[in-house]
Specification:
Elements (H helix, E strand, L loop, with lengths): L10 E3 L9 H8 L11 E3 L8 H8 L8 E10 L2 E10 L6 H9 L3 E4 L2 H8 L17 E4 H4 L3 E5 L6 E5 H4 L5 E4 L5
């Protein structure tokens, strides 16, 4: 199979490589009920040493910078309560934590969640967190630009490997909310 974007040596439908995914991502792919068939979720094998966006696109194709999205975990706080959420924005943007995120979560204060919280609660590696397979009660905030991108390169839950999925599929993930201006 050839990847729909980028230049990768190995690309396969994610349901065929569940053993290359962390448990929560593999479970989400195995039980996929999204807006596109599960075999349109494409896994590409990549070197974890070049997982950071700038190095990654230099190696696999500069055009990927406009087709990649980063998923970060944020914590919104209000009155002693903390709400965790995932935010997905194009890799050329940064998450508007103190504007769009804080407002959407109804939080007094919002910030990036500590690394150990993000990895511990998702079961994913830092630098590989993906919106597929997150805890069921977390909001997944998706920037409209991500949802409008035909094919989006995202994490796979591990620093080794990425997923390429239709942007419209990300907009229909459980608890997904598409927000204009999430990425700035």
């Amino acid at each position: 199979m050839r990847a729909p974007i980028g230049s990768f040596d190995s690309a396969r439908p994610a349901p065929e490589v569940l053993d290359l995914l962390v448990a929560p991502v593999a479970d989400a792919v195995r039980n996929w009920t999204g807006s596109v068939p599960a075999d349109q979720l494409v896994h590409v094998d990549t070197d974890p040493a070049i997982a950071d966006t700038a190095v990654f696109v230099a190696h696999h194709g500069e055009e990927l910078i406009r087709q990649s999205a980063n998923c970060v975990v944020v914590a919104g706080k209000r009155g002693g309560e903390t709400t965790l959420a995932a935010c997905l924005v194009l890799s050329t943007d940064r998450v508007d934590v103190n504007g769009a995120v804080r407002k959407h979560l109804g939080a007094r204060k919002a910030s990036f969640a500590p690394q150990d919280t993000a990895t511990g609660l998702t079961g994913m590696e830092y630098g590989g967190i993906t919106p597929i397979g997150l805890p069921a009660d977390w909001p997944v905030l998706v920037d409209a630009a991500v949802a409008d991108t035909p094919w989006v390169l995202i994490g796979s839950g591990l620093r080794r490997g990425k997923l390429i999925v239709p942007g419209k599929a990300l907009a229909t993930l459980p608890n997904a909310v598409v927000l204009e201006g999430l990425g700035i």
